[in-house]
């Protein structure tokens, strides 16, 4: 057992990764304080409450329940100690813009039958695909996600090579999916999860077919109260372990070194022995550290591939939206143009793919009686010009598109409307170019090619969150918190004698 008793740690940023790291370090005996620039904890997993409506502002899918079980289990607790889960049926609904509609349900045989309607033998192909996905998930999680392999020699070790044999490590998701399915709509169904990884079918490694195991086999769930309730639970666990939280307290600089850090804030400096930054990696390096302390220069960050930003509408509407499921995707029959407008030639998409979340389908507490709460998310390129006029024009375009392609006309029923876009991501979360997620999961930005947890230029400074390993998403950020804490314990932990 390793102890951090006597060590003080400041965690900058109360996103999922920062909250998780704080729990692990406090459990190891450290005196942990989390400072957060915004008015609430959660980072991108913030909550919006207004006029009786409640929305998850960011992540809204509860996937990989095994990761949450493991996290709370590390502290002799379970998720059910804090929140209840509902298994969604359907997992999600897809509307294709040529009039087709597909429900993906927990019943695999039913889903196989749907696949067979599009392509002879596709049901059996789905079963083979999911078996490969399950293998990639089980081996990948155990040997390449929970084990942080940060050096090239970690991957050429014979034991690692043996574990990796058979994994879909190379090639793109597009090529991998084409090996199983010819029909473009089936390919889209198998690739939609790439949106959560911030990539496209052509730039995301085939390894991420493991997400289909997450989707089809592990299921899609809803935590009572939304993802914000999960955030509250992790923060509450931290309090039980002794973590202290300061909201509305942005960090403006990191000074000093291990054993004598000063984290500057408008309310005065916070002193600590060690620092963990859950602020965006580029922001921490370029804005909080002195030039000689930075591990990467501005040119490095400029040349990275970033996950999309998003145009978001949070809507409270009168009446029901029966045609929509809790999770609904609206897809053009050819979505490559949309991805090209994100990664190749950035501009607002003409025929967008987008996502609608209607938590009021499952949770009566997120909207007043007789109303529905929903939000619309359109992935767009980071760094796009984001003016009030553009937002207004695009808002009208999307609401019209929803009416045409789902049969739900929201326009005359909206009683609450809030908008969030590129500039808001940059301002609220200090995200590079207003990206909604951080560094995309391209082949050259996966595993050891992502920035490390240990700061290159400052001993005693660590990073956590979606820009580090294992990457983007609430479960991955939970794991990132564990990995960062392991690094701190390796460097500063002391044997307890037990």
From TrEMBL:
Q: In which pathway does it act?
A: Carotenoid biosynthesis
Identify the residues that the record assigns to the Amine oxidase domain, covering every copy. 16-489
Which keywords are on file for this protein? Carotenoid biosynthesis, Oxidoreductase
The protein's matches in Gene3D superfamilies, at most eight in alphabetical order, are given as: FAD/NAD(P)-binding domain (3.50.50.60)
GO biological processes: carotenoid biosynthetic process
Q: Which residues cross the membrane?
A: none
Record GO terms (molecular function): oxidoreductase activity
This chain's protein is named Phytoene desaturase
Quick one: which gene encodes this? crtI
């Amino acid at each position: 057992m390793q102890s951090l008793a006597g060590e003080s740690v400041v965690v900058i940023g109360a996103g999922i990764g920062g909250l998780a790291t704080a729990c692990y370090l406090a459990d190891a005996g450290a005196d942990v304080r989390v400072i957060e620039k915004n008015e609430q904890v959660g980072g991108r997993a913030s909550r919006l409450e207004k006029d009786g409506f409640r929305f998850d502002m960011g992540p809204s899918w509860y996937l990989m329940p095994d990761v949450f079980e493991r996290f709370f289990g590390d502290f002799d607790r379970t998720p059910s100690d804090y929140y209840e889960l509902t298994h969604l049926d359907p997992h999600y609904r897809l509307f294709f813009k040529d009039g087709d509609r597909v429900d993906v349900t927990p019943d695999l045989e039913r889903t196989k039958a749907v696949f067979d309607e599009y392509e002879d033998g596709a049901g059996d192909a789905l079963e083979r695909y999911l078996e490969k996905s399950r293998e990639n998930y089980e081996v990948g999680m155990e040997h390449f996600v929970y084990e942080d392999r940060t050096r090239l020699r970690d991957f050429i070790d014979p034991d690692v090579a043996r574990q990796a044999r058979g994994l879909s490590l190379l090639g793109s998701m597009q090529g991998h999916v084409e090996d199983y399915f010819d029909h473009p709509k089936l390919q889209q169904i198998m690739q939609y999860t790439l949106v959560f990884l911030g990539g496209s079918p052509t730039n995301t490694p085939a390894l991420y077919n493991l997400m289909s195991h997450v989707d089809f086999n592990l299921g899609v769930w809803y935590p009572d109260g939304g993802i914000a309730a999960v955030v509250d639970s992790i923060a509450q666990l931290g309090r039980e372990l002794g973590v202290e939280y300061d909201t509305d307290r942005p960090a403006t600089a990191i000074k000093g070194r291990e054993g004598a850090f000063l984290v500057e804030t408008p309310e005065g400096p916070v002193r600590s022995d060690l620092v963990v930054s859950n602020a965006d990696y580029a922001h921490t390096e370029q804005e909080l550290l002195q030039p000689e302390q930075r591990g990467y220069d501005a040119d490095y960050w400029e040349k990275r591939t970033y996950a999309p930003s998003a145009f978001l509408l949070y809507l409270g509407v009168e009446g029901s939206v029966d045609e929509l499921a809790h999770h609904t995707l609206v897809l053009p029959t050819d979505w490559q143009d949309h991805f090209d407008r994100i990664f190749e030639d950035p501009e607002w998409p003409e025929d967008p793919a987008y996502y609608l979340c209607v938590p009021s389908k499952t949770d009566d507490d997120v909207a007043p009686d007789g109303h529905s709460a929903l939000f619309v998310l359109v992935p767009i390129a980071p760094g796009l010009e984001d003016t009030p006029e553009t937002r207004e024009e695009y808002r009208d375009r999307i609401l019209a598109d929803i009416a045409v392609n789902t049969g739900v006309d929201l326009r005359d029923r909206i009683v609450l409307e809030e908008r969030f876009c590129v500039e808001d991501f940059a301002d609220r979360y200090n995200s590079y170019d207003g990206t909604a997620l951080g560094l995309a999961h391209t082949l050259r930005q996966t595993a050891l090619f992502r920035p490390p947890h240990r700061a290159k230029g400052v001993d005693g400074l660590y990073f956590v969150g979606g820009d580090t390993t294992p990457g983007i998403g609430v479960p991955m950020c939970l794991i990132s918190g564990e990995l960062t804490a392991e690094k701190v314990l390796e460097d500063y932990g002391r044997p307890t004698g037990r």
